[in-house]
Each structure stands twice: as C-alpha cells, then as structure tokens.
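Design job #97: recover the sequence.
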C-alpha cells in the first residue's frame, strides 16, 4: 500500500508550471531518486510531499499517521546548541523540554543552588507527564547509532558531522518516509560512503535529490524525473534510466518532427482561401486549431549550457616540481616529505578527508605558501584561473551582469567580443535574469555564474575547488567533456567519485599523518592501487605466531622436510583461502555493525550471525592447518 499519493497535482510560480498534472506514489521500502535540471522544481516537489506547500490543483493523499522527515541542504544558522539539543528539536514540543532538561543537568556540576535544583525537579515532572523519558531514550539511541558527541556544540563539528547531526534530527522521529535534498553536499568521501552504507541498511522509504552519480547508482531502486512540469517514472537503477531516457528523447524528437510537418501541410491548406472554410471542411479546420493549441503548449527541452574556455598562451612544459616538501601548522604535520612533478596537460585530482590539508596543498603548488622544508619550483608563463569553493568572489548585492564583467556590455572569448547577455544565455540565464542581484540566485545558478566568470579569464592552469556542488547532472557531464578537451593543466579538488574518474589523469591522495601519495588515474584507480589494509588483529597475531613457530623449528632442525605433493598443494593454496575468508568476515562484520541491521526480520539477522560465526571458525581452522603444515615441513 502506498505511503503517499499525488493525483493530478499542478503548481505554478508566475507563468511557469513547475508541476503539471503530476501523478506519483511511493511504497514502503522504496529508495527513489528525483532528478531534473536546476530550477525544474525538485525542491518544491519535496515541499508538496511533506505538506509545506499546497498545490494549486489536484490532491495529495497520505497514509494515516504517516511520519515524514526532511533533511534540508543547509545546517541551521544558530550553531550554539549542543548536538543533543539539535537532535531533540526534531521531537516537536517535547523536544524543547528535553533540550532544556539536558542543559540544566549539565549545569548542575557548576551550580547546584536550590533554585536550579527546583527548576530541574519541575522539568522532571513535566517530562514524566509528557512521556519524555521514552522520547529521551530515542534521542540517545540515535546519537549512539550515528556515533555523535552529544555534548559538543554544533559549531565545533566538521561539515560532515554537522550533516550527520541533521540526519539524526530527522531520524529521531522514526519516519516512514525520509526526504533528502542534496545530502552529499560538503561531505568528504568517508562521509558519503558512511551515508550510503547507513541508508542501504535503513528500513524506511527514501526519496532523495542528488547530483552525485555514484551515490545515485548505489542507492536508487527507481528514478523519477521532473522535466518541464511533467513527472516520469523509470524503474531500475541510474544506468537503466540513462538508456531509457535517451530512447525517449529520440522518440520525442521524431514525434515532434512528424507533427510539425503535418501542421505545416495543414497551414498551407488553410491558406487556399474560401475552399478550406466550406462547411464540409469544418472538422478539418477545428483539427488544425487543436494542432495550433498543442504546438503553442509544447514545452521545449531546456537548452544546455555552452561551455568554452578562454585560451591563454601555452605554459612551459614543467608546471610545478616539488621535492621533499613539508608544511607544519602549530607543530602538526599537514604535508610531510611530499614530492611530485606536474607537467603541462596533466589533470590532477586532489583527494582527502575534510580538514586533511587539500587547500594547503593547492597553495603550496601555486606558490602562495612556502614549505617549512623542501623545495617547490614553478614553471614559466603560468596564467591561473581559480574556481573558489566558498563562492567568495561573487558580490551578493551586485547584479549577475556586474559580477560577470563589472558592468561592461561585452566579454572577450578567444579574441572575439560577445554581448554579455548573449554570453550569459549560454549559461542558461534568460535576458530578464541578468539584472537580478546575485542574492536572489539559487545554488545552481551561482555555480553557473562562477563558471561563466571563470571561463572569461585566459588561463593555462585551471584550479577548481569543489566545482560540482549544486550543478545538475547534465551540466556536470558537459563540464567533464570540456575539461577532458582542455589543453592546459588542471588542479581539481573534489569528492565526486564519478567526476574524478571521468576527468583526472593522476590523483594526489591524503592518506593520514601528512602523507600525500601520487597515483595514476582517478578515484577507482586509487582504490585498486592503494596499499591493502592490515590483517585484523586476531588474524595478524595468529599469523605472527605461526611464522615465529616455523622459524624457531627451522633453526633447531636444519633443512626443511619435503611435504607430500597433496600437502604441498594444500599449503600453497592456504594464503588465498585465508584472504577470501578474511574478506568475507570483514564484509559480514560490516553488515552486523550497520545501524539498521537488527531492524531486519529475525530470520535474516540469525542467518547472518550464523554465517559470521561459521566463517570465524573456518578461519581459525585454516590458520591452525597452516601452522601444522609449516611445522611438518620443518620436521615437527
């Protein structure tokens, strides 16, 4: 049975129909991704689902007592509250009472005066009357499941942890339907992977908006697309959607071409004069009028961004050479003994957790920061264009046009002048929008304006710090294509795995304790090349014990004894078997550790736990057999 159902829902802002007779429903357990161009109305659609916006026409039916939680893109401006207080705020009414109780309980260590104790007692009584203790347990449970620091202030947390706190605030209500609007924005790779794993193990229904194609591919069981006011459903994953969508667009183009040809023929007929308006042809005239209406109501596919880079003089072959460079901050190593050589045409991805030092590395490579030790040599004829993650280069009080070119009517692209309005139309800004203040733009529009400004600057070294946030997927793919053809050098900081895979030729990866390693290829190439994690502690100890025992016996018995052919083959096959078992054990352990594991049906939980125990026992037996065979080989 559907949780929520929309029937012929329409909603317009001004003359633009964001929703045009939309029908939609979502079933329990579904994970649905909503895709569409920036400005298509995706966030508005979510507001209609949660009841924050009423449609102009149509009906919205919700299951009785349906609990809907919404995770917005931004964290609250007031970040002085503790993590506990922010999460408790998700429980309307009692949440504020719980937050106050938690705050007073913490203050008792410093002030246990009679007045404070009396206030504390009153809060306890109110909570008992409101069933507050059960709700407090909910807050503590979700804090434990998401591994959050309950008493820290929100302002003290990293961007990734702040997003996790807001997710906890949504989950504390135990929603049947969770709505997520760009949940991966400002998360690092570890945070994105944590969120993926958590949502895969969560039992509720999920509807989310994202530009992260890897996240989308892994999570979605169905794609819905909002395009020109119409909502289309595409069962299956993202790859299936791309194939089906391409076919549908081709069919739409073919249908429109046939329609236009027939309309032109009818228009030619009607111009024949009185003969066309005789009584016996009235039906044909009415049909033509209907065709004219259909043509005028046809919603054209929105244009695509036209990206062109302003070319600069070629730089020297060497762009940057770093030898044994280190950077420290307050005695802590940010970059340790780092060496690399970047040449003209390299496209370098910089990967690492939030706070690891990626911006510091950019400053080091650009010569804005001197190393505490080692050397950095920069090449000749470098012209740098910088895409700023913080969007600080835009003046919110000035218009789009003034931000682009300081009020000038023209821009110069590759030696040719172009009117600024025409140029901005290439980035999907209609003429009436170019005089709007930047403060009125959406996140996606601001990003497009930054790209438009960036591409007017002649550059042979392009630096892009998180360029993918707030861009729709189609613009992302066009940007990928442009960067793939770029003749200069690219330095790219990104947490978008698909973008990294499709653009960069090398990756500089922060791997802890100031170590930055250099890998060929993108994100997936790094995963294949990076050092494998160490064995689990128990397995490592068993292996060390077996090797120590073997070494000691060889030292006392001399030459190793030759095993039988069968035993020798068994010994040679054990390392691969041990590796496979350890991998299976880690995979099962990750399932058991997932927050939603014990919310599954009892049969699934019991089967997984039994499998984990069986693999553990077999692993112990294999290690014991390995030790026995090695002991036999040295003469026992």
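Job complete. Output follows.
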């Amino acid at each position: 049975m559907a949780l929520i159902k929309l029937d012929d829902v329409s909603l317009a802002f001004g003359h633009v129909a964001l929703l045009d007779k939309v029908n939609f429903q979502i079933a329990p357990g579904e994970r649905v991704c909503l895709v569409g161009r920036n400005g298509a109305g995706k966030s508005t659609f979510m507001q209609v689902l949660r009841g924050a916006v009423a449609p102009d026409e149509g009906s919205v039916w919700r299951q009785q007592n349906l609990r809907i939680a919404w995770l917005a893109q931004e964290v609250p401006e007031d970040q002085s509250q503790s993590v506990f207080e922010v999460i408790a705020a998700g429980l309307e009414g009692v949440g504020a009472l719980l937050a106050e109780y938690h705050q007073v309980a913490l203050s008792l260590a410093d002030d246990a005066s009679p007045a404070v104790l009396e206030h504390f007692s009153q809060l306890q009584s109110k909570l008992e009357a409101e069933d507050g203790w059960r709700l407090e347990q909910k807050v503590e449970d979700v804090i434990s499941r998401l591994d959050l620091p309950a008493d820290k202030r929100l302002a003290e947390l990293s961007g990734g942890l702040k997003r996790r706190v807001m997710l906890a605030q949504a989950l504390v209500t135990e929603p049947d339907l969770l709505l997520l609007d760009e949940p991966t924005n400002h998360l690092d790779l570890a945070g994105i992977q944590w969120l993926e794993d958590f949502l895969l193990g969560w039992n509720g229904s999920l509807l989310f908006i994202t530009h992260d194609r890897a996240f989308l591919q892994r999570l979605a069981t169905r794609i819905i697309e909002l395009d020109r006011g119409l909502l289309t459903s595409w069962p299956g994953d993202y790859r299936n959607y791309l194939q089906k969508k391409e076919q549908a667009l081709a069919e739409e183009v073919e249908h429109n071409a046939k329609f236009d040809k027939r309309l032109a023929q009818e228009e030619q007929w009607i111009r024949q004069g009185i003969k066309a308006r005789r009584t016996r042809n009235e039906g044909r005239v009415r049909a033509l009028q209907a065709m004219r209406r259909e043509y005028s109501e046809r919603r054209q596919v929105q244009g695509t961004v036209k990206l062109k880079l302003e070319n600069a003089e070629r730089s020297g072959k060497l762009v940057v050479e770093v030898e044994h460079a280190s950077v420290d901050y307050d005695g802590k190593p940010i970059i340790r003994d780092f060496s690399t050589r970047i040449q003209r045409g390299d496209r370098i991805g910089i990967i690492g957790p939030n706070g690891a030092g990626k911006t510091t590395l950019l400053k080091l490579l650009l010569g804005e920061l001197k190393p505490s030790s080692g050397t950095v040599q920069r090449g000749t004829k470098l012209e740098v264009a910088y895409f700023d993650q913080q969007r600080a280069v835009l003046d919110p009080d000035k218009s789009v046009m003034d931000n682009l070119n300081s009020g000038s009517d023209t821009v110069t692209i590759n030696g040719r002048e172009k009117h600024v309005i025409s140029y901005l139309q290439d980035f999907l800004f209609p003429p009436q929008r170019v005089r709007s203040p930047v403060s009125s733009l959406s996140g996606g529009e601001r990003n497009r304006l930054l790209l438009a400004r960036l591409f007017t600057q002649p550059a042979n070294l392009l630096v892009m710090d998180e360029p993918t946030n707030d861009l729709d997927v189609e613009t992302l793919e066009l940007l990928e294509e442009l960067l793939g053809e770029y003749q200069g050098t690219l330095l790219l900081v990104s947490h978008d795995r698909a973008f990294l895979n499709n653009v960069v030729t090398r990756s500089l990866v922060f791997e802890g304790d100031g170590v930055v390693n250099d890998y060929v290829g993108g994100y997936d190439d790094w995963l294949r090349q990076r050092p494998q994690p160490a064995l689990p502690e128990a397995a490592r100890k068993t292996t060390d014990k077996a090797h120590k025992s073997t070494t000691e016996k060889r030292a006392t018995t001399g030459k190793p004894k030759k095993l039988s052919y069968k035993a020798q083959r068994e010994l040679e096959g054990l390392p691969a078997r041990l590796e496979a078992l350890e991998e299976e054990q880690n995979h099962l352990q990750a399932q058991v550790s997932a927050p939603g594991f014990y919310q599954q049906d009892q049969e699934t939980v019991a089967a997984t736990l039994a499998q984990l125990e069986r693999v553990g026992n077999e692993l112990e037996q294999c290690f014991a057999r390995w030790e026995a065979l090695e002991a036999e080989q040295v003469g026992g």
